[in-house]
Specification:
Number of strands: 22
Number of helices: 15
Oligomer: single chain
Strand order of the largest sheet: 3-2-1-4-5
CATH superfamily of the largest domain: ATP-grasp fold, B domain
Helix content: 25-40%
Mean pLDDT: 96
Shape: globular
CATH topology of the largest domain: D-amino Acid Aminotransferase, Chain A, domain 1
Largest sheet: 5 strands, parallel
Radius of gyration: 22 Å
Length: 467
């Protein structure tokens, strides 16, 4: 087996799933050099060298990579922050090729840039939108008139978004997060008065899907569709989070989608790619340049936002079923020779277990919080045993920290349980089995991820919209 070194910039379960995908290789003996946001128990155990960089500062990641540059064959980045800050541009000064877009193509940095890009190449996917800029739009009273005039035009049915990344949060939607103009304007000002540009755009009625692809600079190769659950609580209630869970079907598309929906998405993303790529090739787009949040409406697919990395959790659902050697896939991306990818004909369901204060759970449901568990270590041992024995369950620690040989929950999504099976329903049962074997930390989870009821509701909603 060929020995290679891989630099992994990691935060959360997504980074762990990337590392685990490399570990499945039958062709390579891998040494990991992991720059991590915290002392993740999985990463720390498998790494040749592991460093904790709490802010994932690019200069510190560079120093770490420089120390081991002779042993590293390539690097890959999970979280968006370092990509936006230009980690690839910096690390490649060392001669280490990186799997992620360059700073120039980190579209996630600005939702306004995304809207104007789509207006140029795919106008039919853009909802109506208006940009509010604290430098141009005057004082509070003046901007209030402009905001309310726009609300009149859209009959209040809007989404309010910060221009800069909110990491899955920061978005407010009429009828969900606020039901009065007073509440909406307070949310608007929370962004605007801190010097941030704000987009107020038309609220689209539809069903969401997450489109992801790998790219070698010459072409994109689509990955199977996934469905994310952003809201904190059952029934799609509560604030937006980084994602409480996700599912993928056996097919390349989701139960509420048609093959035609899938083909439309691919055609749209191809247009975006060609616009950015230019004539033949653009190496700056290597990696996962487009993780596109689509919403399928009666007017066809619209785009809510574009991210420049794999989704957390969406990329996890996909990587767990990749049949190809992920290391070879990465080399193909670097060499510009990416071809067709092969996936197991399996469904996957991922459910996150999260700490008491995540998504405002402890405030909303104080009686449901297991206060006696909050400061206890999180015990993953029983879940790991099932995972090791059966192979159709993956346990990926996320926002966790190793202290004195014990694992403790931090403030974000603590641990992901991924079930793999022939159907979504079976995969969900396996995921829940893993979830229920994880104890300690006062953790909780959203109980309707990939439920039969939720999926049926999506299917019926799309039938109604198509009529």
């Amino acid at each position: 087996m060929e020995k290679i070194g891989i630099l992994v910039v990691s935060y959360g379960s997504r980074g762990v799933a990337i590392v685990d995908s490399f570990l499945k290789s039958k062709n390579y003996n891998v040494e990991f050099y992991i720059a991590d946001k915290q002392k993740n128990p999985f990463n720390f155990k498998v790494a040749e060298k592991h460093v904790v960089i709490p802010d994932l500062n690019v200069e510190k990641i560079f120093d770490f990579a420089k120390e081991y540059r002779e042993k590293i064959d390539f690097g890959i980045v999970g979280p968006e922050g370092p990509i936006i800050s230009g980690v690839r541009d910096k690390i490649e000064e060392l001669g280490i090729p990186m799997i992620c877009p360059t700073k120039e193509y980190a579209l996630e940095e600005s939702k306004i840039r995304q809207r104007f890009l789509l207006q140029d190449c795919c106008p039919e996917t853009n909802p109506k939108f208006k940009v509010f800029d604290p430098i141009k739009d005057g004082n509070k009273d003046e901007v209030k008139k402009k905001v309310f005039s726009w609300l009149d035009e859209l009959k209040n049915k809007v989404a309010v978004k910060p221009d800069k990344p909110g990491y899955g949060k920061g978005v407010g939607v009429w009828g969900d997060h606020f039901n009065s103009r007073k509440e909406l304007f307070e949310h608007f000002l929370s962004i605007y008065e801190n010097g941030g540009k704000v987009i107020i755009e038309e609220k689209i009625d539809g069903e969401e899907s997450s489109f992801q692809c790998f790219c070698d600079g010459k072409k994109i190769v689509p990955l199977p569709e996934t469905r994310d659950y952003k809201r904190a609580f059952e029934g799609d209630k509560g604030p937006n989070t980084g994602g409480m869970g996700c599912y993928k079907d056996k097919e390349e598309f989701l139960p509420f989608m048609s093959e035609n929906d899938r083909e439309k998405e691919i055609e749209i993303v191809e247009r975006i790619f060609r616009k950015l790529r230019g004539d033949e090739s653009n190496d700056g787009l290597r990696g996962i340049p487009f993780y596109v949040a689509f919403i399928h409406s009666k007017e066809g697919p619209k785009i809510l936002e574009i991210n420049s990395r794999g989704g957390d959790p969406e990329i996890i659902n996909v990587l767990t079923t990749l049949k190809d050697d992920f290391i070879d896939v990465c080399f193909d991306m670097i060499e510009g020779s990416l071809g067709k990818l092969n996936f197991e004909n399996k469904a996957t369901v991922l459910i996150y277990k999260v700490p008491p204060n995540y998504g405002g759970f402890a405030e909303k449901f104080p009686k449901k919080v297991k206060k006696e568990e909050i400061n206890m270590p999180v015990n993953l041992n029983d879940a790991y045993k099932i995972s090791e024995n059966y192979g159709n369950l993956k346990i990926y620690p996320g926002s966790m920290e190793l202290r004195d040989e014990k694992t403790y929950a931090l403030t974000s999504r603590t641990v992901a349980s991924v079930g793999i099976a022939d159907t979504i329903e079976e995969a969900r049962e396996i995921s829940l089995k893993g979830i229920n074997l994880i104890t300690g930390g006062g953790l909780w989870y959203r109980k309707d991820i990939a439920s039969e009821e939720h999926i049926k509701k999506s299917i019926e909603h799309m039938k109604k919209l198509r009529r």
